[in-house]
Amino acid sequence: MPTIKYQQQTKTTDSGYSSNNSSFKNIYSNEKSKTTALLRLQSDIKLGIYSTLKYTLKKGNLTQKDLDSGLIFALENGYTDKKTLKLLLKNGAKPQEKDQINILRLLIEGNHIGMFKKLLDHRYGVFKQENLNRSLHLAAKHGRTEMIKLLLKRADLSYKDEKGNTPLHTAIRYAQKETVNFLLEQAPKTQLIVNNKGNLPLHEAISRGNLDLSKQLLKSIKKHESKIFDWIKPSFFSKKAKPDTMSKTTPNGDTALHLAAKSGNYQLYCYVLNESKPEMVERKNTQGLTALQIITLTQQAFESMLTTKSRPTGTSKAEPIYQNIADNRNTHSLRR
């Protein structure tokens, strides 16, 4: 009986190369085929054929740059199944210093907490401290509280970015309530750190008209008062004073009450007014304006709040504001 020879079946991929082993060897035997090797790796990642991906990683003449580029390619294009990433990491892909923040950013944005945790393991390379600190801001921006927990032992919650913002400033800016609460519990002293604009986290919350976060910050100050007071630098508050973020001013001389008046959130203004010391009502900023005068001069922003239905209850200090705005609504124009 004649011997029947079976032809080895091959599978053609997007890059046009056969996926059998001999084809692999031909492709990677040439020193000039490094670019082709990376394309092959990307194609295998895209197709999700683990046997060929494994062979490419083992026999594909891939450089460290190719491996790292393959990892970034997988993350950028959503090929983030556990097996693919595990193969890449096991075979030498690791975030080099120049790529670290990009890889961490992609994992944070995609909320790939499992792989994020794995990458923080020293087996896959030591992360530069600055990149870990910057990752805190990315995690705060996207509300990735669980990722922040993983970074706590290796990153600094007091770290400032190029604008002088701490992770707490960043979480407030993007209204990440859960993350803000966690950061306040872990590092309450960061409430007293100002950014490059001279703004405290409380100033950021009030300026953005966020009543919930403003309440959260003020409650935290009271809760952690002793811890914060022990940390305060003498130049920040009077040595005998307790931490009072309500009286701390911005470079423009605005207190929390001024900022609340500018925010356009009347409910927030009433809350801050009731939390402020009596003398704050008459405090003037560098423009010579009190908070009440700011409201009067920006009455158009508050016009819709003059009805009885919009008036909050239990805010006796705020009652004179209604009449003041009503009396001046026809005599003052919006200051530009």
TrEMBL record:
Q: Which PROSITE patterns match?
A: ANK_REP_REGION, ANK_REPEAT
Sorted alphabetically, which keywords does the UniProt record give? ANK repeat, Repeat
Superkingdom to which the source organism belongs = Bacteria
Where exactly are the transmembrane stretches of this chain? Answer: none
Statement: the UniProt record of this protein carries the keyword Repeat: yes
Keyword match Magnesium: no
What is the protein name given in its UniProt record? Ankyrin repeat domain protein
Q: Where are the ANK repeats?
A: 163-195, 197-219
Spell out the Pfam families in the cross-references. Answer: Ank, Ank_2
Task: Return the SMART domains for the record.
Answer: ANK
InterPro entries xref list: Ankyrin_rpt, Ankyrin_rpt-contain_sf
In which organism is this protein found?
Answer: Candidatus Rickettsiella viridis
